[in-house]
Design brief:
Order of helices and strands: HHHH
Helix content: over 70%
Oligomer: single chain
Organism: Longicatena caecimuris
Number of helices: 4
Radius of gyration: 18 Å
Structural class: mainly alpha
Keywords: Membrane, Transmembrane, Transmembrane helix
Protein name: Putative membrane protein
InterPro entries: DUF1622 (IPR012427)
Largest sheet: none
Strand content: under 5%
Distance between the termini: 55 Å
Number of domains: 1
């Protein structure tokens, strides 16, 4: 009975997590582009790269959560290998983004790290 409930509701939960990840990445990208355009026109500085990287990392975390939940529905070894590769790639991307954020924060001056500057 529990297996039937999980099999019935899990695809919707996975789809919801995927959509949340897509929405976070899209919203973060649009927001970063807005601030980029505004900074370009007004010559003010804003931490665009850090903001975009944070949005990408958060979106990837939601999408990785969906992939992890997909492992419950896996029926064959081929599917588990594909899911494992996707999870590994997303984890590596997330790790690289976190390293980029740390490097950007360390190389920027304290004024550049504030939200009012680029």
């Amino acid at each position: 009975m529990l297996e039937h409930i999980v099999a019935q509701f899990l695809p919707e939960i996975i789809s919801l997590l995927e959509l949340i990840g897509i929405a976070v990445i899209t919203f973060g990208s649009v927001k970063a582009f807005y601030h980029y355009s505004k900074a370009f026109l007004t010559k003010k500085r804003y931490p665009i790269r850090i903001e975009l990287a944070n949005a990408l990392a958060l979106g990837l975390e939601f999408k990785m959560g969906a992939e992890i939940l997909k492992t419950v529905l896996v029926r064959s070894l081929n599917e588990i290998l594909i899911l494992g590769a996707i999870i590994l790639l997303r984890a590596l991307l997330s790790l690289m983004i976190h390293f980029e954020i740390k490097a950007e924060q360390q190389h920027g001056s304290p004024e550049e790290a504030s939200p009012n500057n680029y």
